[in-house]
Amino acid sequence: WRTARNKKHPTDLCPSELFATKAHQEICDWLCKFVSEARKGDGMEYTPRSLYLLLSALQRHIRTVRPLENINVFQDPVFCSLKNVCNAIFKRLHSKGIGTETKATPVLSTNEEDIL
């Protein structure tokens, strides 16, 4: 995402060592941009669950890079704007039907149970 974004926005470059910065607000601002702009390889939008899991992976990476700080991008007050951006994007995606599909296992009939 960073490489593609930096090509599109040469005047607003995402730093290569973003998570090494001490400024939590800067990390929050870039995570907001990431959630807003991230797309799959085919250009389609990620599901809300996928975006949440990507943020979870980034949080794990931040904690690896900065082990003495227990940063929580989902609950720390400095990341409030990220939470607001996520809520808005998740609602928009759900209203478009993205990420609303449910996968259900078909119920076995009595005859199928007997066969098993």
Straight-line N-to-C gap: 48 Å
Compute the CA-based radius of gyration: 19 Å
Nearest-integer average pLDDT: 91
Task: Summarize the biggest pleated sheet.
Answer: none
Outline the low-pLDDT stretches. none
Task: Indicate the structural class.
Answer: mainly alpha
Percent helix among the residues? 40-55%
The sequence of SSEs as H and E is: HHHHH
Strand fraction:
under 5%
Question: What is the number of E strands?
Answer: 0
Query: What's the shape?
Result: elongated
- Helical element count? 5
Describe the protein's architecture and organization.
The chain is an all-alpha fold. Helices cover 53% and strands 0% of the residues. The chain has five helices and no strands. The chain has helices spanning 2-8, 24-37, 48-65, 80-95, 110-115. Helix 2 (24-37) runs parallel beside helix 4. The longest helix is centred in the middle third of the chain and has 18 residues, at 48-65. The protein is elongated, with a radius of gyration of 19 Å. It starts with a helix and ends with a helix. The relative contact order is 0.13.
Topology overview:
Blueprint (H helix, E strand, L loop, with lengths): L1 H7 L15 H14 L10 H18 L14 H16 L14 H6 L1
